[in-house]
Amino acid sequence: MIVSVHRYELAPTGTGSEFRDAGAAAVDRVLFESNLGLIEYRLGRVLLPAPGPETLPGGSGQ
Question: Which of 18, 25, 42, 50 has its CA 20 to 30 A from that of 36?
Answer without folding.
Answer: 18
